[in-house]
Every structure is written in C-alpha cells, then in structure tokens.
Amino acid sequence: MISMKIRDLRGLPKESLQAKLSELRLDIGIERRKIASTGVASKKTKIREMKRTIAQILTLLNERGVKS
C-alpha cells in the first residue's frame, strides 16, 4: 500500500503510524536504488506518492507530539 487517505491515517494509533513510516522509508530506499541501478525512471509517481504519505504521517505524529 503506497498512499493512504489522511482520514484513514488519523484513525491509526501511533505505533501503527510509526510502523508504516519505517516500512515506507525502507520501500522508498529500495525504489531509489532500483532507479539508480537500471536508469529507468518509470517509478517516479510511485516515489512521489510514498513521499507524500511519509509527509502526512510525520505531520500527524508531530500533531500528536510523538518523536519519530
């Protein structure tokens, strides 16, 4: 699952948000390495969606006062 609606993320507990955050950070690193090794930039929209979801999760965690 790459992107989620913000209202879906708001209903999740902080532990689940932190788990999704670490999973997305790992996935985005893998995708970046794939692009670097093959030179094919066909996954840019996937990376953009992952970055957006990471930003949304970080915003929610900051609103809740949780250190990430």
If you had to describe this structure to a student in words, what would you say it looks like?
The chain is mainly α and 68 residues long. The protein has a domain at 38-62. 75% of the residues lie in helices and 0% in strands. The protein has helices at residues 6-10, 14-38, 44-64. α2 (14-38) runs antiparallel to α3 (44-64). The longest helix is centred in the middle third of the chain and has 25 residues, at 14-38. The chain is elongated. The mean pLDDT is 87.
- Described by the principal axes of the CA atoms, the overall outline is elongated
Cα-to-Cα separation, first versus last residue = 21 Å
SSE string, helix = H, strand = E?
Answer: HHH
List how many beta strands DSSP finds: 0
Instruction: Please identify the structural class as seen in this structure.
Output: mainly alpha
User: How many DSSP helices?
Assistant: 3
Largest sheet: number of strands, sense, barrel closure: none
Rg, nearest Å? 13 Å
Measured by DSSP, the beta-strand proportion falls in under 5%
SSE diagram, text form:
Blueprint: H1 6-10, H2 14-38, H3 44-64
List descriptors.
68 residues; elongated
In short:
With 68 residues, this protein is mostly helical. The chain has a domain at 38-62.
